[in-house]
Structure formats: structure tokens, C-alpha cells
């Protein structure tokens, strides 16, 4: 890897294109490298993972709205169109990426990478896949495109913090998806450079979508970035140009949205010929919740199972989760959001409330992507009473471990201190989730397949489950025609009994 220093340049300073971050990203994307077998296997895992969580969300309102929007648009003239999860129809690739991106993101249940910023790199898959289907690319070409998307997003997340300035993390997704599409299509460096600049310029937004009363837009934000990436690549292929230098310019992203004119960032990128392995640094979720909650769910359900009397709020005086700055301030009591203790809050808000999540996992000894968020579950009196005794606090050591570059000590959990009503005390800690590569039960192919089967139960027919798994696991050898099989058709269309709410389209 090569560490690239990125800073702001005044308009009077010359910054040649080869020294711009967007150009360096484009150079990585323009190089056609065959992925290692280990990387290819992980791409297959993540396609299965995305399909699993999309399948589980097919009947949810945001997915149905996005799907009907996509179905309102015919296939564009330049190709065969792209498939939509849950739909028998094809549509133009940018709209397929939109609908499928929402389906993948809705339950907050797919893969994650956390460093200077945070991300869900699986969000790269819908736009790259949609373009591959539309333009008749092979499975091997799709794998290379997805590998680039993961590589660029992970490298940007390692080097540049967006959330520090309340910029939504999808600002790293727009450029990475554009780069991935560039690799898929074998585009030259100049074209990818222009697409990366446009994709970044059109996908910067504030983090209010993940603050306070969290709305359905949380699921739409990455889908919008994927849609914008496809449109940016299309314009760049037609010779259209972009704001430049988009990162380093005097009025660019760093100068006005991030650390300002005196900022210095270090972004690692692969050198020429170096295998793209960033996908191997990412990790998926066993539970449908914010990633920082994964380890806490595992600890809470173990504590509740071993000590069932902890489930009664009468036995507990207080519960304090000592954790990282990010966990405390984003999903903990340090956020200052009263909604995180509101039993009538939306699913999206409860998903970002570690006091709620810890309480329910402690009481139930399990976590379910539907039942754990049900209004009747959130409103249960004994849960509300215990929930309001749970707070978080930042511990500098857990913050340091959260940001550590050493995978063996990087941690996303913390230490819980429970003060009991009888004066007793329980102290336990957990560093990583059970499903993490260094956890108690790391996810491998069998776990991804099991997750898909579990979430597809009652939604897909058995033969459809087997068909999809067969296609996905043959990914590198798929022909262009077979690539259309990377979608799912439910046993019963969730729109069958739903009135279609009209919009503009």
C-alpha cells in the first residue's frame, strides 16, 4: 500500500491531475487485476449476505416505495435492463440500483467497516451489479468491479473522517461505486477520474439522517449514492467533466465540509499490481442492528441467560456501558437524543439506541430483526423501566482500541458495570462480536448460507432459495445471461395486497 497525503491547495497553487486523490483512485480502478481466490470467495459471501437481508425486507414500506418508483421507469435503450429484488420486471440500471440499494440497507443487517469513518461496503454491490446486468458483463467482470468498490471505500474510510463534521458516510460510497463501475466496464483513468469527482460532488450530505428521530431516508441514502454513481459514470463516458480538484480544491470538500484549509489526510491505496484485499478487512452482522451494537448484543444475551434475575428491573440499580467515543456519542446516551429512550420511537431510531438494544437482548437472550423492534416489545413496562437505567460513557482505552490499526486489538465493544439493588456488582467486557473474524463464532460460507436460508424462510419458495444459492456460488463463471439470476422472486408478491401509492412517476 502507498500512503497518499491529501491537503487543500489554493487556486494559485498548481496541483497536477496525477497528484489528485480522485486521479489516484481512478488509477487503481483502471487497472484490471484478477482477484485472489480468498477475495473472490468473500465477494460471493457478501452477495449472499446482501440477498439475505434484502429478502427479509421485501414487504417493508420503504422497499415497496423504492420498487414501485423503479418499476415506473422502462429499461433504457442502451442495454437489457437490470433486475429488481422481489419484482418480475427489469428497469434502467440506475433505478434498479436505487430499489435494490434500499432493500439491502433497510434492516441495517449487512456488512460493515469502521476506521476513521464508518461504512457498509456491501452498498457498492447494487450499483455495480445493476450496470453489469444492463450491459451484459460476465460474473468475472462483476467480481473485479465489486472488489474495486470495496477497496476504494475501505481505503477512504481508513483515511478520512466524515462523521467528525457531521457529513454522512455515503460521501465515500459515491466515489467507490463509481470506481467499481469503472473497473467493471474497463474504463480508462481519465473517464473514471471524472466520474469519481461527480459522484463525490453529488453525494455529500449532512448526518441528520442518522440523528434524533431517524426516518426511512436512512435506508435510501446509500441507494441514492449508488444511483448518482451510475449517472456520474454515464456522463463521464460521454466526455463530461467534473469539479476539480474535488477533494483538494480551495472551495472543495476538504476545505469547506471537512477539516478546512490546513487539513492533512493520509489515504492508503494499493500500488500498481498489488492485490485488492480490502474486502477481507470488512465484517458482516449476525444481528439486525448498528454494528457497534453487535458485540453488546452478544454480551447482553449471555449475561441474561447466565443470570436471568438481571432481567427484572427491581434487581438492578444501574447499568453503565464503558465504550468508545463513537458508540457513546452516536448510539449511546452521549448523543443527547431523548428519542433513544422513547418506547414509541421508530425502528430506525431504536436501531441506533444501544440502551434499548442492550436491555432487550439481556431480557430476551436473543435478537430478532422483527420481534425485537416491535412496538409492543419496546413498550413493555419492565423493559422501559430497565432501559432507562442503562447509560453509556466514553472510556479512552476503548476509543483507542476502536481506532487501532492493529486488527488484533481493534475493538467495537466495551465493559459493562452493573450495580445491583442488593449492593452487589457485575463487571464483564467484550471486544468484538461473536461473528467477527476474531470473535467466538466467526462467519464463514456456512454462516452466510444459513443467514440467507433463515431470512428467506416464509418469503421464498424452497426451490428459489436453492436456485439463488447455486447461481451466487458459481459467480466467477457466470455468463452475462446467468447474471440475471442474482435476484430473488418471493413466493407471494408483497405488493399483491398493497395499494400502490401514486407519486410523480
UniProtKB/TrEMBL annotation:
Superkingdom field: Bacteria
GO MF terms, alphabetically ordered: 2-methylcitrate dehydratase activity
Keyword Lyase (UniProt): yes
Known catalytic reactions: (2S,3S)-2-methylcitrate = 2-methyl-cis-aconitate + H2O
Record domain MmgE/PrpD C-terminal: where: 287-475
Key words, A-Z: Lyase
Protein name: 2-methylcitrate dehydratase
Organism the protein comes from: Isoptericola variabilis (strain 225)
